[in-house]
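User: I'm new to structure prediction. If I give you an amino acid sequence, what do you actually give back? Let's try with this one:
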Amino acid sequence: MDIRPEEVTSVIKQELKKYKIQLDLENVGSVIQVGDAIARVYGLDDVMVGEIIEFPNQVMGMVLNLEEDSVGAVIFGPDNPDRDIKEGDIVKRTGKIARVPVGEALLGRIVNALGKPIDDKGPVNTDRYRPLEASAPKVVDRQPVREPLETGIKAIDTMIPIGRGQRELIIGDRQTGKTALVMDTIINQKGKGVYCIYVAIGQKVANIVGVAETLKKHGAMEYSTIISASSRSSASQQYLAPYAGCAIGEEFLYSGKHVLIIYDDLSKHAQAYRQLSLLLRRPPGREAYPGDIFYLHSRLLERSAKLDDKLGGGSLTAIPIIETQAGDITSYIPTNLISITDGQIYLEGSLFYADVRPAISVGLSVSRVGGKAQSKAMRQVAGKLRLDLAQYRELQTFTQFGAEVDKATQAQLTRGARMVEVLKQEQYSPLSLAKQIMIIYAGIKGYLDDLELSRVKRFEIEFYKYLNQFQPDLEKEILAKQDLDEVLEQKLEQAVKAFKNGFIA
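Assistant: Good question. You get back a string of structure tokens that encode the predicted 3D arrangement of the chain. For your 505 residues, that looks like this:
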């Protein structure tokens, strides 16, 4: 068989036309120093801040520092994530900014700071992701905070109301009931269409398990997600956790839904960031914190907002928690947070140990949204309560020195003591708005003044039972109207009087 050269040439030409050159270009660098879950990498010239990079054995990291000759990156992973990484190892760019899975698939789940499930319930089935860092909504995209977020806690809903889209700080020493307050608030959102996200930063694993069990017991895990960056997690995970929680919340926010996010607590978050910054050789400032420590929290909390109705009207309400040392709210991180948030709830150790729980200090707590985030009925009933209690505290201090008091002062002391007793509340027993209005009304109108202090709590419990049995429509009417008009107030007054007569007898 003869092979003609022109045939061979034409076949070769055809094959050459089909051939396409594919170049796979990878931007790689090499590790020049590693230790304490921090790596310095040479050669990644075009890398971005916050970009995920890949070390050998599929270990991932994130770029935090961009320097002239090298980049500084944190390494993700369990304990000692850098143990398999050594100098000279090749590091690859991924071109992806750190992100987390989002959506309703995360409800009822416990995930880590990167959105990976740690609750043994299988993978999170979602194809939607959001970057950890995102811009806060612009001023023109927001609307004023007007809609109340009911906590179910009498002392908060009456005196320091929280609105949807607000940022309200909870501040106090350790073991004064900070987490207990937010647990009750989450439990009270049942059936109200509010998604809850609890971010645990630097907590003991046992505490996080306890929170999950409590929420499960009260049926609150159905609408909640827990992001866990426990004390066993690396500083990088503790640093990323609140941003991950915020990104998960933003998915609901921009879908027109309502979200409550708890950061427990941001003092440990600041400490984790300080650790990373010092290891990255950033210049230390006051208390060894880096210069951008304020920006660390402001860029997180500014993402909370109540969106304009044309954007869906969704809201993201943030309740950050800060732990103080010996009640010092003037130290560095607490003052930063107080200046960023729209008010603070201060828990006082002396009140807690005096069995006033929740141990909210009326004088030091404030909501800068105030009555705008309260229903009209609650404003009508509790308008003067905060001032009356503050005056009661002052008079109480004055009378401790044995000074004689007139009848008016004695009446004020009697009323104040009963109102303090009314505002005490058991944990995991949030109250509906109507029940709060009814018992506060009974207190401010003087129906408790002639009761012994020890009988006030029994009066409250039996009053609710009486209303459920004999006046079940009164609670529904208050909730429906949200306004104590003349007719409704008369009904409420008659109910209180009728119960009071039977209670004394």
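You can read the tokens as a compact description of the fold. Here is one thing that stands out. The mean pLDDT is 92.
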